[in-house]
């Protein structure tokens, strides 16, 4: 039952937050109209579409980890019971934000619309402030040393080359809080 509630909450959050940030807002800025050539070269379109696909897949993977591993949602109002440290989280602490950024930048490249690059920059700055000012302190309060050890081992924005293993400093079975 907890997993079903976590899945339902995560789906709602996925549609409302990343759906608006990476879907509705870019559409409002561009109406999905591509710039006329020569501003949109085929290699940029292809790279952009690949970034969108990879970003969406990474986002879905990260949301699934919150449901299955964390037994909760990414929404602050319905947080996980356990610290999520598996999957993409073994490489980087913020794969959801990076995935949303990839989707925005991918659309900028695919459509040849520089306004979306400016939007991606604004998104990155807002997220960096949010993570530093709210998210990290909240996770430290909620999960204590478990999160502190994870934070020391896994970088926030640039992925590790090798996957982090829980025995590197966090208990293998995160405790429910």
Number of helices: 5
Radius of gyration: 17 Å
Low-confidence segments:
170-177
- Along the chain, the helix and strand elements come as HHHHH
Number of spatially distinct domains: 1
Q: In which range does the helix fraction lie?
A: 55-70%
Strand content: under 5%
Class computed from helices, strands and strand pairing: mainly alpha
CATH topology: Four Helix Bundle (Hemerythrin (Met), subunit A)
General form: globular
The main β sheet shows up as: none
- The CATH class is identified as Mainly Alpha
Number of strand segments: 0
Average pLDDT, all residues: 90
Cα(first) to Cα(last) distance is 18 Å
By CATH, the architecture is named Up-down Bundle
Topology:
Elements: H1 2-30, H2 42-68, H3 95-111, H4 114-143, H5 145-153
Features:
Four Helix Bundle (Hemerythrin (Met), subunit A), 177 residues, 0% strand, single chain, mainly alpha, disordered C terminus
Can you tell me about this structure?
The longest helix is centred in the last third of the chain and has 30 residues, at 114-143. The chain has one domain (2-168): Up-down Bundle (Four Helix Bundle (Hemerythrin (Met), subunit A)), CATH 1.20.120. 33% of the residues are buried. It has 5 helices and no strands. Helix content is 63%, strand content 0%. It is globular and about 55 Å long. The protein has 177 residues and is mostly helical. The protein has helices at residues 2-30, 42-68, 95-111, 114-143, 145-153. Mean pLDDT is 90; it is low at 170-177.
Write a brief caption for the model.
This protein has 177 residues and is mostly helical.
């Amino acid at each position: 039952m907890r997993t079903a509630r976590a899945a339902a909450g995560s789906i709602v959050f996925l549609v409302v937050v990343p759906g608006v940030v990476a879907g509705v807002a870019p559409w409002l800025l561009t109406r999905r109209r591509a710039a006329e050539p020569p501003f949109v070269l085929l290699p940029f379109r292809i790279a952009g579409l690949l970034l969108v696909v990879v970003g969406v897949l990474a986002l879905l993977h990260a949301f699934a980890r919150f449901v299955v591993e964390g037994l909760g949602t990414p929404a602050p109002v319905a947080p996980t019971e356990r610290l999520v440290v598996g999957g993409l989280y073994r490489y980087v602490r913020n794969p959801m934000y990076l995935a949303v950024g990839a989707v925005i930048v991918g659309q900028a490249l695919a459509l040849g619309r520089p306004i979306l690059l400016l939007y991606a920059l604004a998104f990155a700055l807002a997220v960096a402030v949010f993570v530093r000012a709210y998210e990290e302190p909240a996770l430290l309060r909620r999960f204590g040393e478990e999160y502190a050890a994870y934070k020391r081992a896994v970088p926030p924005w640039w992925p590790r080359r090798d996957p982090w293993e829980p025995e590197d400093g966090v208990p293998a079975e995160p405790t429910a809080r």
